[in-house]
Structures are given as structure tokens and as C-alpha cells.
Amino acid sequence: MDPFDLAFAAAREAAGLGEVPVGAAVVRDGTVLAVAGNRPRALHDPTAHAEILAIRAACAAVRDERLTGCDLYVTLEPCPMCAGAISFARIRRLYYAASDPKGGGVEHGPRVFNQPTCHHAPEVYSGFRAGEAAALLRGFFEGRRS
Ligand SMILES: [Zn+2]
């Protein structure tokens, strides 16, 4: 199973609930530990981004506050908050689909992993299925305007 398939499915599910369509999956050694979609509106929680929920669920699954050796797959460049959580969780590799020039915190904005105050930076790989992720977001926001 391609973890991006799970992340995209979670993003589409989020869109169906009126959430911004972002999905994330945490994987260790080929085992999926957690999959989550964006839920700020449903949970009345501005921190309920897909990455945060996936990290929390994966930590609960392994009963550890660190996800050493785990990789995170997400459909959009993480925001600064999520990049911080990814660092604290000691995620090994971050894979994301679309870049987010407006809200991203990895290759845009504060570039969290490149700061001297960041004590753990994952390996970062981006651009996977970026067109699909961008189309999903575009479709969601166009639908909201109409
Ligand atoms: Zn975020």
C-alpha cells in the first residue's frame, strides 16, 4: 500500500466534511501506524491538522512521545506548527505532495527545519503527486466560493 494513497483518501474524506482537504499517514518499517485528515472544524480545534492528528495517533499506538524511525506522508507542505511537531516527534523522513507558498513552514515562511533552534530535522522529499494535491485543494476552495 502506497502511504500516499492513504493520505489522499484521508484528504478527500476531510473535504467531504467541509474541512480543508489535507491528509497524512505515519509509517514505520512498512507498517501504517496512523492515518488522519484535517479536522479543525469538526473538533473545534485550530491545532487539529492532519499531521498533528496522525502524529498523536501514531504516538498512542507505539506508546511513546517520539516516532523514531517513522516516516510521515502528507498531501501538502506542513505549516510551521506541524513542522514543529514533526521535529519534536523525531520523524525520520517527511514526504509531501504539494508545496504551500501561502501557509507552508518547510520550504516557505519560517523554514522551521533550517533554523538553529530546530534540534531535529527530518529528511524532506517533496513533489509527489503534487498536481493531484493541488487540484484537490483548488476544487475544494472553488466549491466553497460558488
Ligand atoms: Zn499544520
UniProtKB/TrEMBL annotation:
<feature type="binding site">
    <location>
        <position position="82"/>
    </location>
    <ligand>
        <name>Zn(2+)</name>
    </ligand>
</feature>
<protein>
    <recommendedName>
        <fullName>tRNA-specific adenosine deaminase</fullName>
        <ecNumber>3.5.4.33</ecNumber>
    </recommendedName>
</protein>
<dbReference type="InterPro" id="IPR028883">
    <property type="entry name" value="tRNA_aden_deaminase"/>
</dbReference>
<dbReference type="GO" id="GO:0008270">
    <property type="term" value="F:zinc ion binding"/>
</dbReference>
<dbReference type="Pfam" id="PF00383">
    <property type="entry name" value="dCMP_cyt_deam_1"/>
</dbReference>
<comment type="similarity">
    <text>Belongs to the cytidine and deoxycytidylate deaminase family. ADAT2 subfamily.</text>
</comment>
<feature type="binding site">
    <location>
        <position position="79"/>
    </location>
    <ligand>
        <name>Zn(2+)</name>
    </ligand>
</feature>
<dbReference type="GO" id="GO:0052717">
    <property type="term" value="F:tRNA-specific adenosine-34 deaminase activity"/>
</dbReference>
<keyword id="KW-0378">Hydrolase</keyword>
<feature type="domain" description="CMP/dCMP-type deaminase">
    <location>
        <begin position="1"/>
        <end position="107"/>
    </location>
</feature>
<dbReference type="InterPro" id="IPR016193">
    <property type="entry name" value="Cytidine_deaminase-like"/>
</dbReference>
<comment type="function">
    <text>Catalyzes the deamination of adenosine to inosine at the wobble position 34 of tRNA(Arg2).</text>
</comment>
<dbReference type="InterPro" id="IPR002125">
    <property type="entry name" value="CMP_dCMP_dom"/>
</dbReference>
<comment type="subunit">
    <text>Homodimer.</text>
</comment>
<feature type="binding site">
    <location>
        <position position="49"/>
    </location>
    <ligand>
        <name>Zn(2+)</name>
    </ligand>
</feature>
<keyword id="KW-0819">tRNA processing</keyword>
<keyword id="KW-0862">Zinc</keyword>
<dbReference type="InterPro" id="IPR016192">
    <property type="entry name" value="APOBEC/CMP_deaminase_Zn-bd"/>
</dbReference>
<keyword id="KW-0479">Metal-binding</keyword>
<feature type="active site" description="Proton donor">
    <location>
        <position position="51"/>
    </location>
</feature>
<dbReference type="GO" id="GO:0002100">
    <property type="term" value="P:tRNA wobble adenosine to inosine editing"/>
</dbReference>
